[in-house]
Amino acid sequence: MTMTLYHGEPVGPSLTVLAALFESGLETDLVRIDLGLAERHGGAIPLGFEANYSVEGEGPVLVVDGEALVDSVFIGCLFDDLAPECGLRPTDPYARWEMMAWCRWMIERLAPGAAALANLAWTTPRLAALDDASFAARIAPIEADDLRARWAQTRAGILSDDHRAASEARVHEAAKKIDDRLADRQWIMGEFSLADLESYAWLAPMRALLPAAFEDKPRLAVWLARVAGRPSVVRAAELARSADPVGSFAPGPEINRWG
Amino acid sequence: MTSDVTLYHWEPNANSGKPMLTMVEKGLSFNSHYIDLLAFDQHKPEYLAINPMGTIPAMTHGGRLLNESTAMMEYVEEAFPGPAMMPEDAVDRWRVRWWMKFLDQWLCPSFSMIGWSLFIGPQVRERDPEELKAAIERIPLPERRIAWRKAIYGLFSEEELAESRRRVDFGIGKLEEALAKREYLGSSQYTLADINLFNSAYGLPSMQPDDVNDEKTPNLMRWLRAVARRPAVRETWTYSRVPRFAERILPLIEEAA
Ligand SMILES: N[C@@H](CCC(=O)N[C@@H](CS)C(=O)NCC(=O)O)C(=O)O
Fold it and tell me: Is the interface score ipTM higher than 0.95?
């Protein structure tokens, strides 16, 4: 099995997948791409239908024997399937259910909100700095109409008041959910797991944008520091090339259209 | 029944049908608890005590609660004996999970939006307006509150319905391609992804006969019949109480048999 991981700066889904890889002890080639400039679609990666229509949007891509795999939690599950002792997932079926349901909440509720706020703050200025022709050339190869539309909206800095309010509410909810969860434990599942990585990767960047969501949550603050200090996360963070990788987002999951 | 597993479900389709069909395929006996979605049973205090999200389905195993239908299916697969409903190969497993997410978060919400605008909304709209208003207020998840409001008052925009129709048409094409490539969805064996899809797609040949038929989508039709032929599918439909849903699947089951 040959594996190549195309990843962006260690933030959001790229952080989850890089840290999960280091947790697993598996070997892959690492290739850095600038997800925020649509380099994923530059032609070097053999994107298939699944990668083109990833619900996660512009996350990292793991190419396994020529097939492009996406969606950070499922790449994490794959690492865990390949290295079952690595602890990315608990072994008990009920704990596994709880972890998958937890990650689903983060994917479906936190991620779209966090991505919308992060992109407006950091990706919009990057894209607005491109001239029209260069932007058009970068997004032309994107297959999914709805993803291409999100790129155009991101460049134009469009986020409706309703969507902004819903996005902020989700960041607040996620921060509270994690803080509550930590009342009797150090990690979300008791032991460290993929749930810590996925939650951290989306929530931590929000400290810069919505500090109010983090106020008076001492357990959350300690957990954020604990995850940041995890050797796999430290190793992923060391791959950063920018002074602050938090600015390296890319259009993420869409805000749910239907309940 | 003596089972320590109870499933809280509505009709044996969509999200409710996912864990139910998985249980039946695994040969797991369970207590069935029908929650009438159209009577807003899912927002009543008795049910909120079981599933505070007020969504269907939920299950209990002993004293433990589970919700989120896709995660429930994986639990049923892992916690109980019976035939394997996930492939062995790690990349196949990834693909099965990918498809389930694509269905849960991209394609099926579009099916659902159309279904709610055409069927659920009109069905419920006739009731006492004050009662409906109160019913909406009781919905715990804000997204579900918005969904019900749109369905009841017919507030779907033309634009969002058009986008849902686009996704359904596009999705049908992609399903056809995927099922031309592999015998089942994402792998060469019947898995949780097939259960997931079947529960939302069984009505396509009868509801969109011009788009889903033996000429245009031969692989999707082959696959629909193969799944419809399974005894477990027939068994789950014995739990149906709304004839309108059963009417849509029974012809497919009969024809496939
Ligand atoms: N992600 C959840 C969604 C559950 C869900 O929304 N179910 C719908 C029925 S298919 C529901 O409960 N609707 C009731 C309501 O909105 O009041 C799952 O997969 O279980």
Answer: yes
